[in-house]
Structures are given as structure tokens and as C-alpha cells.
Amino acid sequence: MDPVVTVIVPVHNTLRYLERCFGSVEAQTIGQRKLEVIAVDDGSSDGSGDWLDAWARERDNVQVIHQEPSGGAGKPRNVGIERARGSYLFFLDSDDYLGADALQRLVAMADREQSDVVYGRIVGLDRDAPVDFRTTAPDVSLYDSPVYWALAAYKLWRRSLIEEHRLRFVEHRLLGEDVPFAVPALLHAKKISVVADYDCYYLEGRGDGTNASRQDVDWVDQLEYVAGTLRTVAELVPAGRERDKLMERHFHGEILGMFNEPYLARDEAGRKDMAAAAKVLLDEWTTEPIMAALPPRLRLRVHCLRHGLVDELTEIVRADTGRTLGPAHQDGERVYAAYPYFRDAERAIPDSAYDITSRVRLVQRVDSYAWDGPVLRVEGSARLSELDPAGRTVGVLLRRQGYTYWVPADTADDGTYTLRLDIGRAADGEPLPDGIWSMRIVVTSGELSKEAWLARPSDRLYDVSPEPRIIDRGNTGPCAAGLFHSAAHQHLNLDIGDTRRLLATTARGTLTRTRLGRVEATARTTVPGWPAERGETRLLLVSGHTTLTAPTATEVDTNGRIAARATADGVTPGTWELQLRLHAGTFTRDVPVIEPSGEPLRLTVPVPLVRQVRRKAARLVRGR
Q1: What element of type H or E holds 505?
Q2: What are phi and psi of 465, to 5 degrees?
Q3: Less Cβ around it within 10 Å: N or C end of the chain?
Q4: 492-496/334-336 β-pairing
Q5: How far apart are CA 90 and CA 75, in angstroms?
């Protein structure tokens, strides 16, 4: 029976990684019977070939092929493709390794969805993963997802796709040999899927600097090589939005990505040669949508390369790689990156090459919130990215059913702010009305303004919203106020009027009888912020539609703990349930009083003995 997956591993002088790499293949939960492993020793001189032979002798599903060094992973992978029998191919680099469930999950997705290509989540080890896949998806588009930004070979490929289009890797090339393979494969694939809920592939960043991507490269030759990939894209994708989306990725990765440290490492003649080779590609493939999509650091590179500004390009690259850029320039509502030669009359580089307005975002963090009497105090930081936080304004918009009120915050030049939201004055100097108020933070710099939902604090102290409380709104009187985090996105909301999280839902109580036979009732509850002088409490006796109010003595401490006491004298016979009425300003609530067991506290008043005798006598008379 043919295997389900053929794992192809090119090996060149990676002895110290082989046990980890091949051990991860042997640990695959899909089972060894479904796996075929083809290891191609590409002229190793460190003993890797001998290690592979020893490994294969003890395993029936492993075959080793030895060949002369070819100068890259392309030829070993092609040899593996020619020998493969699996329905799927997986290309594993010998210094990397797999999560134990990787192939089982990838194959399950491919079988279930009939996918031609399945991406697995990649974890970088001492290097960044090319793309951080966060969402598992059975069917993704190359044009509206990040998958096209990860063109490396390590993913699951349906072998029939590879054979139908006779796809092979470029041989004898150290860098980018997988791009001409991946591009047509992805463009011909009928369905592409992503497994993002499991760490499938671990990508090693070698501390010795021997990763292929870190090697010295003839960048002029590399740029000429990239031209073939761009032509492939143009042949398979008509001009327009979709082609521009793909070309943008190649501008980032294969053309402009080398104009940083590798460019600065060349002498003046070498830089001019690189610039001339890039200009050929950029003149042919640059479009306005691609330019608009590029960040200014790359937009500037394109402009300089296309206009022969090699010296200017060098200074821009130096400023970029040296991280010496200061805060951006702001002109009205527009923001421009602080790269050299901005509005330099001699160079005449257009403002659009520096424009980062669309990339400016509101960066915020809430550190704490707490009540200080009727004032909600919120502390945090908020600024506009790219801009100096000094001189900005910060405030919060309170919104509810067509009403909007602005509350300014005090700011500091380091980006922090303190908001003091006085409930008694927040509505343009008047008390804030009852209701649920959304809270959006607004940061303004000059004529540019951004707003966002006020975020939940990251500190675990605020995992649960603070208890609601009674606050004093001045002339309007006390009211209930509280905060809560929205369930979906954890945005901060203000609840005025006790509409969301209720205050004092129950009170604990007891009934006792004095030596003289009087019944005394006690009820205790806690209402943070309860106004001892302006609040009213009453003990109620409720039976059916009848409610009796007992004269009540109340004690309140500074933490809002309420103790109410009353004597239940002269109550008509029957069973009465006790309630505690709380009233302060617009806040009114009748709270059930419960026993320690959780049952309602009830007072049963029996019929007096004399009345019982009279009733019995009356029944006897009626009976005659």
C-alpha cells in the first residue's frame, strides 16, 4: 500500500540537528505506516550521510539518497519528488522539526476539504516566522489572506498538483529556490487551507549564521532571477487588483528587501549595480496601487531607484536601518515619515512618498480605574503612533442613544493621561442621566484625530469589574453607578441607574423574640457608597398584596455596610416575608431578606387563643 505522506528532507552538513529533525518525523501521530521518508544527502562532509544511513537501516520507511553537493535545497527536493509515492508531499528542512500532531492535522484538513495545499502554523526559533497564522480556515484566498507571504516549501502539497503542472524547484541556487515552485503551485491550487490552532513547524534560526538566507549573495544576479517570478505572476494573473496584491509581496520580499544591510555593505559601484538591476524590474511592474500599499520606507526606495537617486537612497537606507528617525512631520491632517530629503527642493521627492497618514493609529493602554466619590478616575496612556505625544489632547466620549458628551483628560508629555469623570457634571456641566454609556477615547494632534473603544485594563486586578456603588450627583441626588466590560470585546462601559449590574440583590436577616415576647427583625446588606444622611431604609413585611412598613433604626459604616433593625408589633395573623427597602435619590430597591440557609426570612403570626375560641364557638352555633 502506498504511503499517505512522503516527507522529503534535503541534508547538507546539519549533523547536530538530524536527531531532532528525524526524531520529530518518527514521533508523528499519523503513524509510520502512512509515512515515507526520503532523505537526500547533498554532499555532506560532517558525517551527516553516515548518520542517515544508520538511521535508515533500522527503519523500513526511510530511504537515503547520496549525491554530490548541488549548492542549494532545490536539487535534493526534486530528487525526492521523483522518488515519492505518497498522496501528499511535505518538505522538511533538516535543521527544523515538526510538532507531533502536525502531519495528522494537515492531512485531515486536506482530506476533509480536498485541499491542494495546507499551511501549518510556524514557530520561529531565534528567528521570526514568515507569517503568524492565527486562524484555522478550510478555504483561504491568496488575495485576502497572508498565505502568499509565506512561499517557503514547508507545507503540505497534494502530489497530483505538483505532477500535473510539472512543478520543480530551481536547482543550484542557495536563496529563493522555492519561490518559482510555490508561486505557480499556489496559483494553480483549487483550494488552500490553514491549520493555525497547532504549532506544526518549528523553524530554526542557526546561531552560527549558516542559514541560507544569511549567506552572502550576488544581489544583482538575484534581482535578475526575481524577474522570472514576476513574469510567472503576470502570466497567470490578469492585470488589476489581484495581481497588484501579489506583486506587492514580491516588492517587499524579493526586490526591496535587499536594500538594507546588504545594500549598505556594498561599495559605491556595487550599490549602483544593485540600483540599476532593481530599476529594470520597478519600471516594468510598479503601479499606483502598489505604491500606495507600500510603507513609506519602501515607497521611498522605489522612487529613488526609479529616478537614479542612488546617493539619496543610501542616506535613506542608513536612516532606516540605524533606527535614527525622529517623530514624524505633521502638516494639518497629513503625517509624513521623518526620512531624509523631505520637501528638499533640490531632490523634489513627492510628499506622497513620505505620507504615513493612513498608518497612524491610536495606541492606548488603561492602567487603572477607581471611584473617588462621584468621580471615576481612569489612568493610562494614549498617543498617536508615529507622532510625538507632547502637545496632544486626550478625552473620552460618552455616548448613549443619540446623546454624546465630551470629558477631557489631563495629559503628560510621556504619553500618560488621567481622566476625572465627575458623574455630577459630565453632561456638559450637568449630572449624567441614567443609562448605559459607551466610552470611547479620543486622541487629537493638530488637525488629526483618532478614536477607539476604551480598553479593559491588562492588570489581573481588573479581571472582574468593580462592584457598582451609590454616588452623589449633586442637586439630582444619589444614583447607582457601575462599570462593566462588554462580553464580546471587553470594552469599558459606564452604567448609571443600576440597569446592568444590580446593587444589593439580597440582605441577610434574623428574627428574635425578647423576654417580653416582642419580635425584633434585623437585616444586613452592603451598598458601596451608601449615603448615611441622604439614604432611607425601611423594613417591610409583605403578605400577598399587603405591605406593612415597620419603624426602622439604621446604622451605616464607611464601607457601605447597612444594618437595619425594627420591631414587628401589632402585625395581623398570617405569614409575612421580610424585605429591606433602600431609597437614595433615583435609586429605589426592595431587597428580599434571606436566612443564612438562603431561604426567605418569614414571620408567622398565629391567631390569638381568645380569637380561636370565639371562631370555634361561632362555627358551632352556625352548625345548629
Answers
A1: none
A2: -60, 145
A3: C
A4: unpaired
A5: 15
- Ramachandran angles phi, psi of 273, nearest 5°: -65, -45
Q: Rounded CA gap, 563 and 28, in Å?
A: 66
Backbone angles phi and psi of 507, in degrees to 5: -130, 145
DSSP string for 408-469: EEEE-TTSEEEEEEETTTTBTTBPPPSEEEEEEEEEEETTEEEEEEPPPPSSGGGSSPPPPE
Residue with the three cell numbers 501528499: 88
Pairing type for strands 519-526 and 561-567 reads antiparallel
3-state secondary structure of 335: strand
Closest CA to 451 of 405, 388, 395: 395
Cα 581 versus chain centre, distance: 46
pLDDT tens, residue by residue, 142-169 = 999 999 999 999 999 999 999 999 999 9
Q: What distance in Å separates the CA atoms of residue 543 and residue 557, rounded to the nearest whole number?
A: 31
According to DSSP, the residues that pair with 37 across neighbouring strands are 7, 62
Helix (H) or strand (E) segment spanning residue 75: helix 74-83
First-to-last alpha carbon distance for the chain, in angstroms, is: 104
Q: Indicate the Cα dihedral angle 247, 253, 254, 257, nearest 10°.
A: 130
The 10s digit of each residue's pLDDT in 512-559 is 887 777 889 999 999 988 888 888 999 999 998 899 888 899 999 988
Q: H or E stretch including 484?
A: strand 478-485
The amino acid sitting at 240 is G
How would you classify the pairing of strands 507-513 and 519-526?
Answer: antiparallel
* Residue 215: band (very low, low, confident or very high) from pLDDT cuts 50, 70, 90: very low
The residue assigned the cell 459630565 is 426
Distance CA 22, CA 107 (A): 19
